[in-house]
Write a structure and sequence with these properties.
This protein is of the alpha/beta class. It is about 50% helix and about 10% strand. It has helices spanning about 35-40, 45-50, 70-75, 110-115, 145-155, 160-175, 190-205, 210-215, 235-245, 285-305, 315, 320-335, 345-360, 365-370, 375-390, 395-410, 425-435, 440-450, 450-460, 460-475, 480-490; strands at about 30-35, 60-65, 80-85, 90-95, 100-105, 120-125, 180-185, 225, 250-255, 260-265, 280. The longest helix is centred in the middle third of the chain and has 25 residues, at about 285-305. It is globular.
């Protein structure tokens, strides 16, 4: 079967939107580390909209872990389809903004050389929470992380994303080239500052003068990124192939909604505001709103929903008790902590989120969201809980989210089947769970001692412990659905 590529693009049926610029005339201005589905449904689409008027801002992507994206996109000359889906239908569009994908493991020199060249003015990242090799509770570099240990010993052949940034910046410093802007697009709190402190610490361990240059000249704008992007399935691939009349090995399914808020602190950039991004000096409040409302709800739905047997977020939204729980979590517990935002804006944001979660065409698996909970909990639920505790206010639903995570990482569901728990701390968490058995208190004590998640403060907090253990006992004794029903009834 014909495959989507530069040569076959003209044969794509009318009705599928195509790049509106001459791809052979665009050049790369951005290197993107972590060329996963999210980036291709988000930033790459904004850049696709930019290229007609700003042809020197295309993207070269790099995959740091697996070569699968490169292998799929290479025969397609970087072209792929995004299928925007909701109840009203599917809208396919071919994206052309990614010129090339490099595999960091086998093409490291080529990648570092490109990152060091003056033509690259932005290096952006979606390497997921764990890709920052940091301590999620404090945001500081984890010097004991195996990839960081490797990169400290072998700075010229780095493996980690922070190590790649530092080596490329070092080469620019040595060559007298102005630095690129580092733009994190991951769901971390203050992602610019967090990245800056990690990169700066690594740079300092490399060379003091170089670290001064980094501190003085490198921009690390924070961003808030938002678009729901489920993993692509074989059925999705078949659907897109049918729509295109030719094969696309790596299409992306996503929703109509998209949002990008960027801290307006750097000059060498394309006019992102012309293609729908919001440039602002106050990105933190958007980030916090999104992490606490969208992602906090997502994680809570993921753990509870998975255990209750709901495969997709839209299934969870079909259960009225779960909807009440999530509505209450946002309205009563998260929104009051977002004091810099107007209440009516927040209520509208909440309602829009509930609508997005309901999207029946988006097969967003609870298992997918459940991944890497140890890296996600701090910014999604624990920060909100800290604020509630400090204000002396209740946080019952948030505590249920944390308890559901603890129940989930035990690795056995309510039917006695194994759960495929994916998390950098999975081995440690499962050992803790094996020791605790179904003793809720022992499980809590074991898990809360992971201070890289809970910090020293929550580990020692009696009110936090009481709230989580009460829910955990209930999850073990009466199960998820009955626990959720009891919690929503009590309000
Ligand atoms: C999700 C996010 O997988 C997850 O953890 O909560 O990927 C979420 O879909 C995005 O942040 C939406 O912008």
């Amino acid at each position: 079967m014909t495959r989507l590529s530069a040569a076959t693009l003209a044969k794509v049926p009318a009705g599928v939107r195509l790049p509106d610029y001459d791809r052979s005339a665009v050049t790369a201005g951005i290197v993107h580390l972590g060329i996963g589905a999210f980036h291709r449904a988000h930033m790459a689409v904004y850049v696709d909209d930019l290229l007609k008027d700003n042809p020197d801002w295309a993207i070269v992507g790099a995959s740091l872990r697996r070569p699968d994206t490169k292998e799929a996109l290479e025969p397609q000359d970087g072209l792929y389809t995004i299928a925007v889906r909701d109840a009203a239908g599917t809208h396919p569009r071919v994206i052309g903004s990614i010129l090339k994908v490099l595999d960091a493991n086998t093409q490291r020199e080529e990648l570092l050389d490109l990152m060091a060249s003056p033509q690259i003015r932005i290096v952006s990242l979606t390497v997921t929470e764990k890709g920052y090799c940091h301590d999620p509770a404090t945001g500081k570099l984890d010097r004991g992380h195996p990839d960081i240990v490797h990169d400290l010993a072998n700075p010229e052949t780095p493996r980690s994303a922070p190590g790649m940034l530092v080596e490329a910046l070092y080469r620019r410093w040595e060559a007298g080239t102005v630095p690129f802007t580092v733009m994190s697009c991951d769901n971390l709190p203050s992602n610019g500052e967090t990245t800056a402190s990690i990169v700066f610490e690594l740079a300092l361990l490399r060379n003091v003068d170089f670290s001064d240059w980094v501190a003085e000249l490198v921009n690390f704008p924070s961003t808030m990124v938002d678009r729901i992007v489920p993993s692509t399935t074989d059925a999705d691939r078949a659907m897109v192939t049918e729509l295109l009349g030719m094969e696309d090995a790596w299409p992306i399914m996503t929703e109509p909604f998209t949002q990008w808020v960027i801290q307006d602190s750097f000059e060498s950039r394309p006019p992102f505001e012309n293609v729908g991004a919001t440039m602002t000096r106050h990105v933190e409040q958007f980030e916090r709103m999104k992490l606490r409302m969208l992602n906090g709800s997502h994680s809570t739905m993921a753990y509870l929903g998975y255990l209750a047997g709901y495969e997709y977020v839209s299934d969870v939204m079909g259960d009225p008790d779960f909807v009440k729980l999530i509505h209450g979590l946002m309205t009563e517990e998260a929104m009051p902590t977002l004091i810099t935002l107007r209440k009516d804006n927040l209520a509208a944001y909440r309602d829009e989120l509930l609508e997005r979660f309901r999207n029946p065409a988006l097969k967003h698996r609870t298992w997918q969201i459940a991944m890497d909970g140890s890296q996600k909990l701090p910014q999604r639920l624990l920060g909100t809980i800290r604020d509630r505790l400090a204000a002396g206010q209740p946080f019952e639903r948030l505590a249920l989210g944390v308890a559901a995570w603890m129940r989930y990482v035990v690795g056995i569901d309510e039917k006695g089947d194994n759960i495929d728990v994916r998390d950098p701390l999975a081995m440690r968490m499962m050992a803790i769970a094996a020791e605790a058995g179904d003793d809720a208190e022992a499980l809590y004590i074991g898990l809360v001692a992971l201070t890289e998640i809970f910090g020293g403060d929550l580990s020692d907090n009696q009110a936090f412990g009481d709230a989580v253990v009460t829910h955990l006992e209930s999850l073990f004794e009466i199960g998820v659905k009955a626990t959720v029903a009891e919690v929503v009834e009590s309000h």
